[in-house]
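Batch job 17 of 40 flagged for manual review because the log was empty.
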Amino acid sequence: MTAKLRKAFSDINSGHWQSMVDTLAPEFTYVFYGEHALSGERHTVESMSLWWQRVFRLIPDAEFEPQEIIVSGGPWLTKVATRVRIGGPLPDGSRYDNVMTQFMYLKWGRITEIHTLEDTVVLQRALDRIAASGNAEAHAEPITDAPARADRTA
């Protein structure tokens, strides 16, 4: 499983994020925590594809470097925790450098849940720089297909 995850990140680094989308179960949840253009909750392949397209429009040369991958459980329910460094050049000449953690659940090799948490202060600063360079999408509403929750604050 660890080798498959490293390959998935390598594919994403090459711009081939579709291989990640292809491993999603028919029913899945992807949550990226925060309140920014990359946050939100998604449950469809269409929204995940739109999200990945946005990621690479905002940071075209993003690189994901897995630092640690922890796998537990059998193929009927696999739990995965990752710590990943993310980096890439920004339009103003600075560099984006952040750390992301993900918790994933898979059943028989298909992803049923992903919960992503990145340092949101560092991410928001990068999104602000991208927006200041003329890319308004950096401040766009999240791509989501989940109904609004009453417990979220505006």
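Reviewer: the log was empty due to a logging misconfiguration, but the result itself is present. The longest strand covers residues 95-107. Unflagging and moving on to job 18.
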